Amino acid sequence: MAASTRTFREPSVLPGFGLTFGFTTFFLSVMVLLPLAALVLVAASMHWLDFWHVVASPRALGSYRLSFGASLLAASVNAVFGFIIAWTLTRYDFPGRKMVDALIDMPFALPTAVSGIALTTVFARNGWIGRYLEPLGVHVTYTWIGVTLALTLISMPFTVRAVQPALAEVQRDLEDAAETLGAGRFTVFRRIILPTVLPALLTGFTLSFARAVGEYGSVIFIAGNLPLKTEITPLLIVIHLEEFDYRGAAALGVVMLAISFVMLLAINLLQAWGRGRLLRRRS
Amino acid sequence: MAALPRLFGADAPRPGKHTWRHSLTRWLFIGISLTFLVAVLIAPLLTVFAMALAHGIGVWLHAFSDPDTLAAIRLTLLTAAVVVPLNTIFGLAAAWCIAKFEFRAKSMLITLIDLPLAVSPVVAGLVFVLLFGLNGWFGAWLQEHSISVIFALPGILLATMFVTFPYVARELIPLMQQLGNDEEEAAITLGAGGWLTFFRVTLPKIRWGLVYGVILCNARAMGEFGAVSVVSGHIRGLTNTMPLQIEILYNEYNFVGAFTVASLLTALAALTLLVKSGIDRAGYRRR
Questions:
Q1: Torsion angle of alpha carbons B268, B272, B278, B282, nearest 10°?
Q2: Does residue B173 share a domain with residue B45?
């Protein structure tokens, strides 16, 4: 054991590797990896035709369309507004800036059920904001707009928090030099600011999307939950479970899990890309 | 101290930056940011309290006399009391192992610890139903021994644990990596034992990061909806946590009741952020 441990890790005078590594891997396996493996095994025990029947049914396809479409839209909205908010918070000082900065993390701490009922109330036909949108013909609650809105709220902090440190990294003397040399604000933005923050912006976009695609709590209150129209994929899993169709639920669960893995991979690649660019710029 | 003009750094006066166009862009950006935040975040937060207190503070207080609501609050507190300490111990162990040692497959271990953050809460609940539900792998065995996991407390604990699994570890790993090993190595070399080193050297260094990780884990544990909703069975007064109680009251059009419970959870979230910004401001944390 000792010999294999030595090749496995570099020597150190600090104690506790065996204990902490053992506990970490054990707890991780029991709590996370084995349950997820069970999900994959249950889905794998299905005949592939049955599996296909569930994951490619019109109702499932409709739910993917909404889940992916609304999540992409929410992540894009957050890319634009998240960038503007991050820019405002790093570049400008105004009364209440620190409070606004702290408030950005609210969707991390706020239970999704609370976000769901609160958004539904604000944007309902007679709600604080909904009453002004209704005469314009914009129906937010119980439509895809509401789904997008809920997903925008819960995934907003990811973009802002990803872009903020990158914006702080932008070298302002470069901006000044460019302006002195006659570049307009837009050229400075396109040639200096955007290249520096692009990896962070894309990471934020992917994190927002990953969070939005699996979201359940806030959406079900505002969505209306009509099959093919306003039914998200996680809700369809719940419906399969309520009908005691465990395998159907597992099949859809595997689809969602596969998406999670792809997202994780994309995030890791984007972050590696961003680090590489940063190192090259500094050297 | 007399206010001297700063010549360097981000706040230094910048030549040619005081044109009307710059102040226009500045106010445009601040305006867009605040409008977006008010519509998407601040209005919903205020609504929670406006709806909860719509019929006065007496009605708000009366909503707590509902025995099912009280049971939901008790269950939520119990869940957090079990889940948060376990995930804290895990977070400390994982952070010690990852930050203090170099070993193979370390980045894979970090990715796997983060995995529950990328998994849909509904999938998190689903996996435990597949294992312990009536038609699940251990369902028959559990029923023989009349142990209930799904639609009972153990299922709620498991699902909450899964969802909040990475919170403490994520906060501690970068912090401990940044602080380095020098002081611990000195303590060990001078003859201190492992536990003594941990409690006297490491813990004081990381305590504010730990506090933040724990309160965030707690907020998430008390507020989890999707995963718990799948395993709980929604039995009133028995397996309803606070977020599930909100759903039930809301669907019954008992808006005051729903928003009363929601106002408690919103206050908890606000308190969590308050502690966080206090820690940030004191500069105890990285960033």
A1: 160
A2: no
